Structures are given as structure tokens and as C-alpha cells.
Amino acid sequence: MGLIANPIIPDDDCTLATCSLLQAHFLYLPSLAGNALFVAMFAIILFAQVGLGIRYKTWGFLGGMFGGLLLEVIGYAARIELHFNPFKKSSYLICDFLSLLLQAAGGAIASGADTISKNNMGRDIMVAGLGFQVGSLALFIALTAEFALRAWKRQGELEPSFSTLRSSFKFRAFLFALALATVTIFTRCCFRVGELSQGFHGKLANQEVTYMVLEGAMVCIAVISLTVFHPGVCFQSGWNAANFKMSRTRWGGKGSRNASEKSLGEDSAYEQPIYSNPTLKTTNV
Q1: Measured between alpha carbons, how far is 258 from 171 in angstroms, rounded to an integer?
Q2: Which residue has the higher pLDDT, 127 or 69?
Q3: pTM
């Protein structure tokens, strides 16, 4: 709902010619050029990720990137629709259906709210969902930093068969890209929490340039970095040892173990087992 609690003309019947933007979800018209640019960029990156995922068989990574990029395309396409009709509830709901189910529930309540209390309830649910995402990312960053510190201090104890991979420029570039993507996504989530905590008609929610920079651009930097330094390229043949697989055989079966050993032996640089302890290479999980 907009700032007009009991409008004369229902939202679904509103047009720019008959209703004020005070009745819309935003106090501005979303930029057609800006949102079209993000739709095009995310669509191009989506096709690139599909091609790279198929080429290097990085199915787990492809699944996450495909889902996120597809939702970005849908979300910014919905903002284009809001440019022509800022009163449309379905388009507003799609714009907020981009991460957690909890956020989606809040977006659904907010988009269909006909009272101030319902509108605030939807906002609070969305803020809670985003807050959980920020907390999860903060925990991930802390645990990753702690792991990186321990690995750096114990470099002599790391698996020697992957020393060439670890020292390569591509692998280090991937680590940098992953760190950059994490920071930009974290920045985006913090911005969204601050934006929604002020309400749908707060100052931050009605600054499109700020939104484009701290939401769209942050996500764009993240996905571009993880496309340029794609793990299939940067891990080289070592990705088969790092990627999770789905096998037709049962876990721990002979076929599963043989398939794992075969994937490790596809490149001569990685023929040694993951673990240096010889007692582990015959152990069934």
C-alpha cells in the first residue's frame, strides 16, 4: 500500500494519469534504462554461467548461480514493469521474492496490505529474514577467516599433491573473487536491512541511485567476479576432488569409491589421494 490509507481509486485500477505516486509502492518511477541494463547484464552472466557449468561440469556451483541469477533477472524485469505501472501489486511482490522464504512471506503480506498495521507486519518479517541472512553471512565470514588463518599457519601440513594448484595464479584469483563476492553480497544485505527498517516509504527506500549502487551493483560485482574467475577454470583438474557428486551407486559402495578414485586420476598432477594417510584410502564411508 502507498501513503494513502483509504484511496478513492483501488490500487489495481490506478494509472499514472488517475492516481498520485503517494498511492504507489515507491515515491518515484523506477528507471527504465537502469533496470533494463541490470536485466541484460544478469541475463548475459546467466548464459555464461550455464556454458561454463556444462563445460567444466561444476553442477553444484551452477545450481546456486543459476537460481540466484534467474531471480535477479525476474526481479529487475518486475521493476521495469513498475516503471509503467507503479501501482501493480504483483510486480512489487516479485521484486522482493529474491532470497529467503521468510522475506517472500513478508513481501506477500506487504504487497497485499490494506492497513498500516499489516504493511508494518510485512516489513518486519522481511527485515527479520534479511537480518538472518546478514547474521549467517557474518558467521560464514568469521569461520572462513579462521580456517584461512589456520591453513596459512600450517602450510607444511597441507596435502602436497595440491601444492601446484594452491600456488597457481588462477586458484588465488578465485579466492580473491570469492572474498570480493562475499563482501559485496554482505554489503547489499546490510543495505537492505537498513532500507526496510525505515519502512517502504522511508528515505532509503525512495533513493533509486542508492538502491542501484548498493543493491544492483553489489550483486553484479559478485557474479561477474565469480564468472571471470570461475572455479571450473581456476581449480583446473582439481575441481573433481573438491566438487560434490551424485552417483547411481550407494554411498560407500565399490562403484562410488572407484568413481572417486578415477576422478582424482584424470590429471597426472592430481593422481595422489586427497589424504596423505595411507590407511584412509581404503576406508569406506
Answers
A1: 27
A2: 69
A3: 0.75
